[in-house]
Amino acid sequence: QQSSSVRIVEVGPRDGLQNIHDSVPTPTKLELIRRLRETGLSTIELTSVVSPRAVPQLKDCREILRDTKVKNLLQNSRLRLPVLVPNEKGFKIAIEHGVREVAVFVSATEGFSKANINCTVQEGIERAKRVAALASATNGAGESQIAVRGYVSCIFADPFDGPTPHSAVLHCVQQLLQAGCYEISLGDTLGVGSPSNVRNLLAYLKDNNIPLARLAGHFHDTYGQAVANVWEAYTCGLTVFDSSVSGLGGCPFAPGAKGNVATEDLVYMFDNAGISTGVDLARLTEVGTWISKQLSRTNSSRVGTALMIK
Ligand code: HMG
Ligand code: MG
């Protein structure tokens, strides 16, 4: 029996913006978050607290988190508003600003791990574990509960090392679950996988006792396979998918990779199948058109452009 609803994790304000060269004004980022929330999205990754040298675009993360409207959203316990953090420093800054959910990230492969977070896969896992331990210590101290989400990047291939063995993905997923992550998002960072790859990897993880209910899909769209990958993952049993409005996105350390699957395309696909996302497609389309204009970019959502032309 397949689920009649899915949860969309909107990563536009973080993954969507991090690879844009020209600095996006902070008020535009804040307006993007506000408009995304108005569409009904209940999970929005707000920003990342990473080295400003690594990702200059998001060096205004403190201003984002200090904004009064964002503060109000953070107090709404019905929303999930994760902030991406690479280490304890990022975690502490996020928590000081009232963040209640952080996302840690590791790569299944050595090449991307070194390029992205300047350490080995195992060191990355240890860092993520230290963040999760800090979160659980904070929770133990009786403050409001901090949730930790995990990402595993390069699930199919690494930009420097080539194809990724399934066992490398399994190792990271097991380690992050053991560390206390409530959910692991599987990242096709390069956007090279297709549905058969998705099916094979999910079958392998399931055979190795990973509960599919703890997994999410995070597909970049370099080869135009991302919507198909989401549907395949859904039919395999996943119900949580990361996406970016207007298909923004990409990682500065994954050369050649394109944006995330567009949120509009997912909402359209699930709406047509009678599967609820809680998102208003017409409003979302307007946000996609608006942000594309603000960033002077072509809207990468096929659904978004089709609906606006009508
Ligand atoms: P490093 O140079 O090895 O570490 O970077 P460091 O500890 O020596 O720190 C270097 C400088 O950064 C220092 O500043 C630190 O204080 C500062 P300095 O003393 O030189 O002025 N620093 C920080 N500043 C703010 N917040 C922090 C922080 N930590 C250190 N949290 C490090 C290691 C991990 C910090 C760096 O490599 C980094 O920040 N990497 C993040 C890169 C990134 O954000 N990549 C994109 C996100 S991942 C992604 O897109 C994939 C995903 O979407 C899933 C998928 O698609 O697969 C999630
Ligand atoms: Mg990504």
Radius of gyration: 18 Å
What is the share of helical residues? Answer: 40-55%
Measure the end-to-end span: 36 Å
DSSP summary: helix tally? 13
Mean pLDDT, all residues:
96
Physical arrangement of strands within the biggest beta sheet: 1-9-8-7-4-3-2
Percentage of residues in strands: 5-15%
Number of strands: 9
Order of helices and strands: EHHHHEHEHHEEEHEHEHEHHH
Draw up the topology in text.
Elements: E1 7-10, H1 12-18, H2 26-38, H3 61-66, H4 68-74, E2 83-84, H5 88-96, E3 101-107, H6 110-117, H7 121-140, E4 147-153, E5 157-158, E6 162-163, H8 166-179, E7 183-188, H9 195-207, E8 215-219, H10 226-236, E9 240-243, H11 263-272, H12 281-294, H13 302-309
Parallel strand pairs: 1-9, 2-3, 3-4, 4-7, 7-8, 8-9
Antiparallel strand pairs: 5-6
Helix pairs in contact: 2-12, 7-8, 9-10, 11-12, 12-13
This protein binds 3-hydroxy-3-methylglutaryl-coenzyme A (HMG) and magnesium ion.
Magnesium ion is lined by residues 15, 187, 189, 218, 220, 249, 251.
How does this model look, in words?
- By secondary structure, the protein is of the alpha/beta class.
- It is built from 13 helices and nine strands.
- The chain has helices spanning 12-18, 26-38, 61-66, 68-74, 88-96, 110-117, 121-140, 166-179, 195-207, 226-236, 263-272, 281-294, 302-309; strands at 7-10, 83-84, 101-107, 147-153, 157-158, 162-163, 183-188, 215-219, 240-243.
- The strands form two sheets. The chain has a seven-stranded parallel beta sheet. The protein has a two-stranded antiparallel ribbon with strand order 5-6.
- α9 (195-207) links the parallel β7 and β8 (215-219).
- α12 (281-294) crosses α13.
- The longest helix has 20 residues, at 121-140.
- The protein starts with 6 loop residues before the first strand and ends with a helix.
- Bound molecules: 3-hydroxy-3-methylglutaryl-coenzyme A and magnesium ion (MG).
- 3-hydroxy-3-methylglutaryl-coenzyme A (HMG) binds at residues 15, 18, 48-51, 54-55, 85-87, 89-90, 105, 116-118, 151, 153, 187, 189, 218, 220, 251, 253.
- Magnesium ion is lined by residues 15, 187, 189, 218, 220, 249, 251.
